[in-house]
Design brief:
The protein is mainly alpha-helical and about 425 residues long. The chain contains 16 helices and no strands.
Length: about 425
């Protein structure tokens, strides 16, 4: 399925990788890993998942807009295929490992974890957690795959909504604003401490974080960079400071932060807006101190190549290490570091990268078979297939008809993952 070429916000004329955003991926996954290892030391470290959601919305939406600019349409089948090849091979490896271990591991370490592995690879872990689809404890080892389910459920519908917005530009602004604010309304109406876990895991109460990233992509395609920076640049370091305070748990309180009213009502939206400010500055101003720090090659390379594998493997390895050596923190921590240092690079080299290369070959073959002519500039700027691109938005040389994009107003300023 594809769309005819009309009515979308002017996409970028080209794209190139943003090392700073890759570096931010590293910071985000580090927050999550440390939080899972030492939850009492980094109480709000799961904020890294919130940051990931905003990054994802920005990058994926920019890619869709660039495809629309280059080809005049959004090819839905190709989009879903790209998502499958990007995520599923490594996820299937980790989920399959857990499934096999649930059958073979002695001492009952992974017994009963099969339903969790199946929920993970079917992108339904968040729903399984919300509605207790499996026996207690059976979702533990792959429970962190809830965020992958959240993303893929969102991206199942977001390209269709983007198409609809392009076809109805007169109502695009109010419709987008209503859709963006709906999760906050639902959270406020649903809020009760007993509902916190369900609010955290259901897509209709969390998709606004991904949509904030998508809104940023649309905004950067419509508004001149100088205008965006005039607003965002003064807010960069206050936003970084606020996110850091949330990560250490200060706004939540150390006793009841997983049932904190502010976090489960307006907190997700506030964190997303703070993340969007940081991303806008990293995208448009590579000379800032923050951008240069995050673009440091070891940091940005890790985020580009290994952040996904690290996220997939870390909780499985942590579960195994702490079960085998429950009373010796130094031992299980050493096991964790050594195992991840081996598993993550091997997964990237032997699973993720070959899968992307195969996907690129299949895509080229299907394009040729369909008789689709590539734009001339596409050959000159053919992207590498080694890594998924993180993009920096450039203004189109010739503006196209645009979808009105709502400007999100400032608001006053994980649960279990």
């Amino acid at each position: 399925m594809s769309t005819p070429g009309r009515g979308v916000a002017a996409p970028a004329a080209g794209h190139e990788r943003s090392p700073a955003i890759d570096g931010l991926r590293t910071v985000a996954v580090a927050l999550v890993v440390v939080f899972h290892m030492f939850p009492q030391r980094l109480v709000g470290g799961a904020v890294g998942v919130d940051v990931f959601f905003v990054i994802s919305g920005l990058v994926i939406t920019t890619t869709l807009l660039q495809e629309r600019a280059a080809t005049g349409r959004i090819r839905l089948r190709a989009f879903y295929a790209r998502r499958w090849w990007r995520l599923m091979p490594a996820l299937a490896l980790v989920g399959g490992t857990v499934l096999v271990l649930s059958l073979l591991t002695p001492r009952g370490l992974f017994v009963g974890q099969g339903p969790g592995a199946l929920a993970a690879v079917s992108y339904t872990m968040n729903l399984a957690r919300s509605y207790d689809w499996a026996a207690p404890g059976s979702l533990d080892v792959m429970g962190h795959a809830w965020s992958l389910g959240m993303e893929e459920q969102f991206y199942l519908l977001w390209p269709l909504l983007l198409i609809a917005l392009s076809l109805r530009p007169r109502i695009a602004w109010p419709l987008f604003a209503a859709i963006l604010l709906l999760p906050t309304v639902l959270r406020v109406r649903q809020w009760a401490p007993s509902e916190a876990f369900q609010i955290y895991n259901t897509p209709w109460t969390r998709y606004d974080e991904l949509l904030i990233g998508a809104a940023l992509a649309l905004l950067l395609n419509r508004v001149p960079a100088a205008a965006v920076l005039r607003f965002a640049r003064p807010l960069l370091w206050p936003a970084v400071a606020a996110l850091a305070l949330i990560a250490v748990g200060l706004p939540m309180g150390r006793a009841d932060h997983w049932t904190s009213r502010w976090y489960y009502t307006g907190g997700f939206l506030a964190i997303s807006l703070l993340s969007a400010v940081v991303l806008a500055c990293l995208t448009l101003d590579r000379t800032s101190v923050a951008a240069r720090l995050l673009a440091w090659r070891p940091v940005s390379t890790f985020g580009r190549r290994y952040s996904y594998g690290m996220y997939l493997w870390h909780y499985v390895v942590l579960y195994l290490a702490t079960a085998l050596f429950p009373g010796d923190r130094l031992v299980w921590l050493s096991v964790q570091v050594v195992a991840l240092s081996v598993l993550v690079p091997l997964t990237h080299a032997w699973v993720e990268r070959p899968a992307l290369q195969l996907a690129a070959r299949l895509s080229s073959s299907s394009t040729a078979a369909a008789g689709i002519e590539r734009p001339r500039h596409a050959e000159a700027r053919r992207p590498t297939v080694r890594e998924p691109a993180t993009v920096v938005i450039r203004r189109a040389e010739r503006p196209l008809p645009q979808v009105p994009v709502p400007v999100v107003q400032r608001v006053p300023t994980e649960a279990r993952s």
